[in-house]
């Protein structure tokens, strides 16, 4: 068995050499079951199990699929795409750009909150945990779902990108009226996977200081624009 056991619960266990609880909502299992059976995903599973058995990796095993667990397929309304998890201790919680409660905000998240405050007037929050966004149907998807401690990008090109590209394609194919927020060059490339006749794609620079300080991030108003689009389509706005 791989990451996901065919059981009628939301929890699954990654067995063999690593005892790792993995949570993913049942709605995603149904839509992605063919992907889980692909040879590349089986190889990816073995790679991740070995990495977690022999190195410190993030996020915790149970949080690898947190984006899918907190934002069920049918409830997903907005998609934000990141690159890979934070690689520092206790930062990553399985949601792109998000950190656990009590963890200092990384620079990109600081700029996200600054833009949010300027855009809709929401006060800068104490916690950098974005679970409340995910619970409202914001899929906070990293292209790569795992990483070695202190080694950014260490799990790239192992199969995760194939999987998450398939997720984007599945969303584009099966749903309508999604709002995709693509921040930075990496995320913008994912626009090629999205049917723009069915969905809305908003792009801007990345919230990292390098991009933001050059004027490519601040003022994009993506949070208010996303809510305007949702309202136009009869959907409730996101309480950012």
Automatic annotation (TrEMBL):
Keyword presence, Hydrolase: yes
InterPro entries: UDG_fam1, Uracil-DNA_glycosylase-like, Uracil-DNA_glycosylase-like_sf
Keyword terms of this UniProt record: Cytoplasm, DNA damage, DNA repair, Hydrolase
Localization (cell): Cytoplasm
Primary residence: cytoplasm
Leader peptide range in chain numbering: none
EC number: 3.2.2.27
Catalytic activity: Hydrolyzes single-stranded DNA or mismatched double-stranded DNA and polynucleotides, releasing free uracil
Molecular function terms, GO-annotated: uracil DNA N-glycosylase activity
Source taxon at top rank: Bacteria
Gene Ontology BP, a term: base-excision repair, AP site formation via deaminated base removal
Residues at the catalytic site: 84 (proton acceptor)
Family affiliation: Belongs to the uracil-DNA glycosylase (UDG) superfamily. UNG family.
Annotated protein name in UniProt: Uracil-DNA glycosylase
Organism of derivation: Pseudozobellia thermophila
Underlying gene: ung
């Amino acid at each position: 068995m791989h990451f996901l056991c065919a059981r009628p619960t939301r929890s699954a266990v990654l067995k063999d050499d690593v005892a790792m609880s993995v949570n993913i909502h049942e709605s995603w299992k149904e839509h992605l079951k063919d992907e889980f059976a692909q040879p590349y995903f089986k190889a990816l599973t073995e790679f991740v199990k070995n990495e977690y058995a022999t190195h410190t990796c993030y996020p915790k095993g149970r949080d690898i699929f947190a984006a899918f667990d907190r934002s069920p397929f049918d409830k997903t309304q907005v998609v934000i795409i990141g690159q890979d998890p934070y690689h520092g201790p206790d930062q990553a919680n399985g949601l792109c750009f998000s950190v656990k409660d009590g963890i200092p905000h990384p620079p990109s998240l600081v700029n996200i909150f600054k833009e949010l405050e300027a855009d809709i007037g929401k006060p800068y929050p104490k916690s950098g945990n974005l679970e409340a966004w995910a619970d409202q149907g914001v899929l906070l998807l990293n292209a790569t779902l795992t990483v070695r401690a202190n080694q950014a990008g260490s799990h790239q090109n192992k199969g995760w990108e194939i999987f998450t590209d398939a997720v984007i394609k599945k969303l584009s194919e099966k749903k309508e009226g999604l709002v995709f927020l693509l921040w930075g060059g990496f995320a913008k490339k994912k626009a090629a996977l999205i049917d723009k006749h069915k969905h809305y794609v908003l792009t801007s620079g990345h919230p990292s200081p390098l991009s933001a300080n050059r004027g490519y991030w601040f003022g994009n108003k993506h949070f208010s624009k996303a809510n305007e689009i949702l309202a136009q389509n009869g959907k409730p706005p996101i309480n950012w």
